[in-house]
Design goal:
Layout (H helix, E strand, L loop, with lengths): L2 H8 L14 H27 L9 H4 L2 H26 L3 H31 L8 H34 L3 H33 L1
Helix pairs in contact: 2-6, 2-7, 4-5, 4-7, 5-6, 6-7
Protein name: Cytochrome bo(3) ubiquinol oxidase subunit 3
GO cellular component, one term: plasma membrane
Keywords: Cell membrane, Electron transport, Membrane, Oxidoreductase, Transmembrane, Transmembrane helix, Transport
Length: 205
């Protein structure tokens, strides 16, 4: 190969110099995912609305629900939303240490929420209020359990991001991921307020 041809090959650029990630593309895509998740919960709420009074001669919500326990659990989730907001404020100030601290507090509140929810499920099953006992209990476990699974995966995601922030700092990619998790976490809070009102409060009245 001649020196001229070799120089011509060396001058070629085989990559894009501009940012390949579309501006706000991830956030838009994540909003689309959240809307699809809204449809899932809308179907579960609709099922509970139809089946929530079919007790099959079994216990009702007034017989089973412990509102004090559920209120404590609700406080855990709402507090986790506040602490995540504090983490985002620290992220905007580029404070890695305090961002990780508030993310850790958020994870603790999320774990407390899951622990109380598992205790409630264990207690209901111990009392014989299993999902197959009635349509009411089937729809209850489906709705509340699906929300609990979302919180569980949110905690896993949170731990993963804490590791990434610890290793690489508050780089642009980590900021974008934290924003997505923020939307997801606050979305779970909104859904839980609906669960608390529609399932627990109305179920005990």
């Amino acid at each position: 190969m001649s020196a001229h041809a070799s120089a011509a090959i060396d001058d070629k650029t085989f990559y894009l110099r501009e940012e390949h990630h579309p501006e706000n593309g991830t956030l838009l895509g994540f909003w689309t995912y959240l809307m699809s998740d809204c449809l899932i919960f809308a179907v579960l709420f609709a099922c509970y609305g139809v089946l929530g009074r079919n007790y099959a001669a079994g216990p009702s919500g007034a017989d089973l629900f412990d509102l004090k326990l559920v209120a404590i659990n609700t406080a855990f989730l709402l507090l986790s939303s506040i602490t995540y907001g504090l983490a985002m404020l620290e992220m905007e100030k580029n404070r890695k240490g305090t961002t990780l601290f508030w993310l850790g507090v958020t994870g603790v509140f999320g774990a407390c929420f899951l622990g109380l929810e598992l205790y409630e499920f264990w207690h209901l099953i111990h009392e014989g209020a299993t999902p197959q006992r009635s349509a009411f209990l089937s729809s209850f476990f489906a709705l509340v359990g699906t929300h609990g699974l979302h919180v569980f995966f949110g905690c896993v995601w949170l731990i993963t991001l804490m590791v990434q922030v610890g290793q690489r700092g508050l780089i642009l990619e980590n900021r974008r991921r934290l924003m997505c998790l923020s939307m997801f976490w606050h979305f779970l809070d909104v859904v839980w307020i609906g669960v608390f009102t529609f399932v627990y409060l109305m179920g005990t009245l």
